[in-house]
Each structure stands twice: as structure tokens, then as C-alpha cells.
Write a structure and sequence with these properties.
CATH superfamily of the largest domain: ABC transporter type 1, transmembrane domain
Strand order of the largest sheet: 6-9-10-3-11-12
Structural class: alpha/beta
Distance between the termini: 58 Å
Number of strands: 12
Oligomer: single chain
Radius of gyration: 35 Å
Number of helices: 20
Largest sheet: 6 strands, mixed
CATH class of the largest domain: Mainly Alpha
């Protein structure tokens, strides 16, 4: 089987596509901050369950993380209690005239061992959790990649490309970072909170009840602050998206900005939007930053109360000074998990919001079930039999279209913009499914063929060139991954790539990408033509493939195309009618229908639509304004 030769991941249809509802710009871009949701999750509970369900195959790792966290927190929580014994040893020694340093040393060694063990286990917990999360994200990325390959072109065309890319990259990265942070912190903070409460009640139930008073106060304060900060964060991300869009627009149109001298206007717009973002961000970050000082204030009040009551309990002999010291340490640790849990709730909300966007992608409709693969040896006879198609059911585009392309014929398709020319070849590739009628290849309905089998017999060269980041050699080889170096060189010579490659310092090892820079627009087009040569397809589709080359190169390409089209069925979409004079059949399309068909000379003699198009290009007189 010959590999598919594609130059832009699928041809783009002409106008008449359904309108796209753009999503907020702040879902992606260079100013996106990880950990802040661009939008609130719609079904937090259901999406959270589905998100954690992705880790089903990581049960062993999750159990290991839980066990490591439990032991690590237990060791950490025991530390202050044992340090309290050390304090009692010192205090008793001072009272009785001598400190038992041997006993003190043993207690301190136990504390050191506890803290070292807790740190090692905490590190192992983080290491294990990283493996669990990243393996889960590896599978999720693979699932998303497989899903993208199963999408019909209709879905891709209906989605903003930036939003689709953001779901695949930014949102999955945000899920990974959110899970990495929240799973560890939520688990550790919850266990620490429980462990500290247990130890506080063991030491003194009365002091524990005093410490617990701060919990409802903490919850009220955090809820109040979060309520006010949420609105400002929404405004922050709104202005972030606006600034991001402004920068992207100015950068992509940098040359036009220079040409029309609009630098000052662009700079002023940037300053205005940057100022709006500053005001919104300042308010959001300031209010969110109040949580920590507020919790510290409550902690200090709690510390004072415990110190006073604890001192009274020591003086009455109800508690030892070591127990009070340990309790004060526990009270200091008590508010920290609460603050962490509140912060992690926001991060988890962000991750779940991103997960929902990825799940929407995974739940989108796919292409229909593939037919079984089978060996093919097509001759290239393509027949349209009363074909009907529309992007929007309310706006018919192609209706009852019928024609036959015999093997080896060159079929030229001409007509005004929006006539349906590119749509016609998209239907041949099965990028879209028909609304009515049938397209057959050598008598076989293409709807009953495996898409891979069909597209493996089609080579495509588009007006909008696409090159991946790599060498010229690899970009040509993309047309046939099994090709030898000699075959690649032959394709390069046939497409006149060889003549300009030798002028480059690195020759065929020169690195190029879709942005160009190293090669001109015309040379990029030649590379895509060489790629089609190498694919050696049965059916060739040329969508204004020579529009970016100079006149001399166009003549050479036309000769090369004549050789390439030999014994192949070719469909040529052309606006420059000089390039299709030798076509076996010219189809003149208008509003999705064939209004004329015939050879170049036959259509000129008719004096109809083709004659009008031809005259507009070559025979229109100059008029004075």
C-alpha cells in the first residue's frame, strides 16, 4: 500500500461552512497560568469521578502512595509529642539538680530518626505519585491523539483551532499538575489534620476543644474571601484573554502593522489592555493573599489561648510543661492543613474544569465505522452519481451532481469562489460523508471502502503548503516512508526541487518548517509537489498547486505535472485558466452545480460561463477611472 500524501492534514473547504461559536480566548495562550480555571466546572462530582477513574489501572501505585503518606504523616505527628518528653527531661533535671543527658540523647535520636524516616517516605510518596499521574496522563494523551485521528473533518472545521489545541496541550498539562499537587497535598493535609487532632485530644481534651473553635471561624473567613476573590479572578482571566488575543494578532500581522505605520496604535491598545489586566490581577491577587495572614491571625489567637490555659494547667499540675510545648506545636500545625485544603480545592476545581474540556473532546462524535481493509488495484475511474452535499442542512451546496472521470484523464474544476470546487475533492477523499447519491472508484462505492485504502491511492497538493519541522529530505520522504534515497532524489528532480536545494548550505539536510524562512513560498510549494511525486498515487488532486511559483517555474511545473498525470486520474482546481488548457475535461461549477463541461476550445466556442471567466482574465480591456 502506498502511504497517504497530505499537505495540510486535510483540505479546507470553501465558504458555506456553518458558523463557529468562538470560545473565550483565555483558555489558552502564553499568558495562561496553571492552576487557575478559565471556567468553572459544570459537573464537579461527575467529572471528578471520571477523572479519578482514569487511574483505575494504577490501583497498586495509589495504594502505595496512601500507605507511604500514612506512615510518613504518623512519624511526623509523633515528633512533637516525643520532643515534649525531651523538654520534661530537661525541666526535671533542672529541678532535681542534674539533667540525664544519656536519656535526653536517646529521646533526641528517636526524634531525628522519626523525622528522617518521615522525609524519606514523603519523598518516596512524591516519586510514586509522579509515576501514577504521568502514566495516567500518558494514556490520556494517547487516547486524545487516537480520538483526533478518528474525527471527521466536519468536527475539526467547526472548532476554533486555538481552542482545540488548548484542550490537547494546556488542559492536559493543567490536569497533570493539578493532580500532582492536589493528590499529594489533600492526602497529606487530611492525614495530618486527623493525626494532629488525635494527638491533641490525647494530650489534653480541654485544650483540644479550645483549638477546635478556630475551625468554623477559619471556614467562614475562607468562604468569605473566596467569594470575593472569585469574581476578580474571572475578570483577571477575561482581561488576560483579551491581552493574549491582542498580542497574538499584532504578532501574526507584524508586517502589516509596520507597512501601515500602526505601531503607535498597537502600543496604545497594549497599554490599555495591560492596564486593565493590572487592575484586575491586583485586586484578585490581593484578596486571595489575605487568606494566609487571616489564618495566621487566627493561629496567633489560638496560640495565646492555648498558652494561657496550658500555663494554668501546668501550674495546677494537670499537665507537664513538655505536653504544653507539644500541644503548642500541634496547634501551630493545625491551621496549616486547613489552609492547604482550601488552596488545593481551588487547584482541583481548575483541574476538573480542564478535564471536562478534554472529556468533551473524547465524547465528540467520530467518523463512522470503518469497512474491512482489502487489497486494491484501482485503475482510477471516478464517477459522481447524483451526489448531494451541504455543510448546513438549511443551505444546500451540491445538488444532484453527476459526471465521470475516466482513468488517466485530467479533470479541471473552475468557477467563482464558493462554487464548491474544493468541497468536491473533499468528498472524493471522504473527508465528509454524502447527503445523497454515491461516488464510485472503479465501480466500488467509496462509502463502503476503508478510508485508509481510499486515501492511500490519492495524492494531494494544496494551495496552502504544509511542512513539518525537519530536513528537506524528510519532508519529501513524508510522501512514502519506504522510499529509497534514490527515489527521493528522482522525485526532487521531477519537481525541480533539486536545482534550488544545491544552493542551500546544508543541501537536503537543510532544516525547514511550516513558517518557512529557509525557503521561499514557491520553493515550499515545489517541496509539496515532490512529496506527491514520491507517493505515486492512482488519483492526483491539485488545488491551485502552482499559485505560489513564478512564471518560469510554473512552466517547468506544468511539464512535470503532465508527466505526473500520465496514467493517473487527476483533478485540478484552478483559478489561473492558462494552467488547464490541455485538460481532458473542464467542469465549470457555480453554486454547487456543474453549469458547463467540455474541453477548453469547446467551452470557448459556447461563449458561456467559462468564456466569461476566461475573458475576465485574458481579454478584459483596460478602463479609465
Amino acid at each position: 500500500m502506498r502511504p497517504i500524501s497530505t499537505d495540510s492534514g486535510g483540505a479546507q473547504p470553501e465558504p458555506a461552512r456553518p458558523p463557529v461559536s468562538e470560545r473565550p480566548a483565555f483558555a489558552s495562550g502564553p499568558f495562561r497560568a496553571v492552576g487557575m480555571p478559565a471556567e468553572k466546572s459544570k459537573d464537579f462530582g461527575g467529572s471528578t469521578r471520571r477523572l479519578f477513574g482514569l487511574m483505575r489501572s494504577e490501583r497498586a501505585g495509589a495504594v502505595a502512595v496512601l500507605c507511604l503518606a500514612l506512615v510518613s504523616v504518623t512519624l511526623s505527628v509523633l515528633g512533637p509529642k516525643i520532643l515534649g518528653h525531651a523538654t520534661d527531661i530537661i525541666f526535671d533535671g533542672i529541678r532535681h539538680g542534674g539533667v540525664d543527658f544519656s536519656r535526653l540523647r536517646n529521646v533526641l535520636l528517636v526524634v531525628v530518626v522519626l523525622y528522617i524516616g518521615a522525609s524519606v517516605l514523603s519523598w518516596l510518596q512524591s516519586y510514586t505519585l509522579a509515576g501514577v499521574v504521568q502514566r495516567t496522563m500518558y494514556r490520556l494523551r494517547s487516547e486524545v491523539e487516537d480520538k483526533l485521528n478518528r474525527f471527521p473533518l466536519r468536527y475539526v472545521d467547526s472548532q476554533p483551532r486555538g481552542d482545540l489545541l488548548s484542550r490537547v496541550t494546556n488542559d492536559i498539562d493543567n490536569i497533570a499538575q493539578s493532580l500532582q499537587q492536589t493528590l499529594s497535598q489533600l492526602l497529606t493535609s487530611t492525614l495530618t489534620l486527623v493525626g494532629v487532632m488525635v494527638m491533641m485530644f490525647v494530650i489534653s481534651p480541654i485544650l483540644a476543644m479550645v483549638a477546635l473553635v478556630t475551625i468554623p471561624l477559619s471556614l467562614v473567613i475562607m468562604k468569605t474571601i473566596t467569594k470575593h476573590s472569585k469574581k476578580r479572578f474571572v475578570a483577571q482571566w477575561k482581561h488576560t484573554g483579551a491581552l493574549n488575543a491582542q498580542i497574538e494578532e499584532a504578532f501574526s500581522g507584524h508586517a502589516l502593522v509596520k507597512v501601515f505605520g500602526r505601531q503607535g496604535e498597537i502600543e496604545q491598545r497594549f497599554r490599555d489592555k495591560n492596564g486593565d489586566l493590572y487592575q484586575a490581577s491586583f485586586g484578585a491577587q490581593f484578596i486571595a493573599g489575605i487568606i494566609q495572614p487571616a489564618m495566621m491571625f487566627l493561629g496567633n489567637l489560638n496560640y495565646v489561648a492555648i498558652a494561657v490555659i496550658g500555663g494554668l494547667r501546668v501550674s495546677s499540675g494537670s499537665l507537664s510543661i513538655g505536653d504544653v510545648q507539644a500541644f503548642i506545636q500541634y496547634s501551630r500545625q493545625f491551621t496549616q492543613p486547613l489552609t492547604q485544603l482550601a488552596s488545593m480545592a481551588n487547584v482541583l476545581q481548575s483541574g476538573v474544569a480542564s478535564a471536562e474540556r478534554v472529556f468533551e473532546l473524547l465524547d465528540a462524535d467520530e467518523e463512522g465505522t470503518e469497512s474491512p481493509r482489502r487489497e486494491m488495484n484501482p485503475r482510477g475511474r471516478v464517477q459522481f452519481d447524483h451526489v448531494s452535499f451541504s455543510y448546513d442542512p438549511a443551505t444546500p451546496l451540491i445538488t444532484e451532481l453527476s459526471f465521470v472521470a475516466e482513468p488517466g484523464q485530467t479533470i479541471a474544476i473552475v468557477g467563482p469562489t464558493g462554487a464548491g470546487k474544493t468541497t468536491l475533492v473533499n468528498l472524493i477523499m471522504r473527508f465528509y460523508e454524502l447527503d445523497g447519491g454515491a461516488i464510485t472508484l472503479d465501480g466500488n462505492n467509496i462509502a463502503e471502502m476503508a478510508r485508509h485504502d481510499l486515501r492511500a491511492e490519492v495524492g494531494m497538493v494544496l494551495q496552502d503548503t504544509w511542512l513539518f519541522s525537519g530536513t528537506i529530505h524528510d519532508n519529501i520522504r513524508y510522501g512514502n516512508l519506504d522510499a529509497t534515497d534514490e527515489q527521493i532524489l528522482e522525485a526532487a528532480r521531477a519537481a525541480y526541487v533539486d536545482r534550488f536545494v544545491h544552493s542551500l548550505p546544508e543541501g537536503y539536510a537543510t532544516i525547514v518548517d511550516d513558517e518557512g524562512g529557509t525557503v521561499s513560498a514557491g520553493e515550499k510549494q515545489l517541496l509539496t509537489i515532490a512529496r506527491a511525486f514520491l507517493a505515486d498515487p492512482t488519483i492526483l488532486i491539485l488545488d491551485e498547486a502552482t499559485s505560489s511559483v513564478d512564471t518560469r517555474t510554473e512552466v517547468l511545473i506544468q511539464k512535470a505535472m503532465a508527466a505526473l498525470r500520465s496514467k493517473r486520474t487527476s483533478f485540478v482546481i484552478a483559478h489561473r485558466l492558462s494552467t488547464i488548457r490541455d485538460a481532458d475535461l473542464i467542469l465549470v461549477m457555480d453554486s454547487g452545480s456543474i453549469v458547463e463541461q467540455g474541453t477548453h476550445h469547446e467551452l470557448l466556442l459556447k461563449g458561456g460561463a467559462y468564456f466569461t471567466l476566461y475573458s475576465a482574465q485574458f481579454a478584459a480591456p483596460a478602463t479609465e477611472v
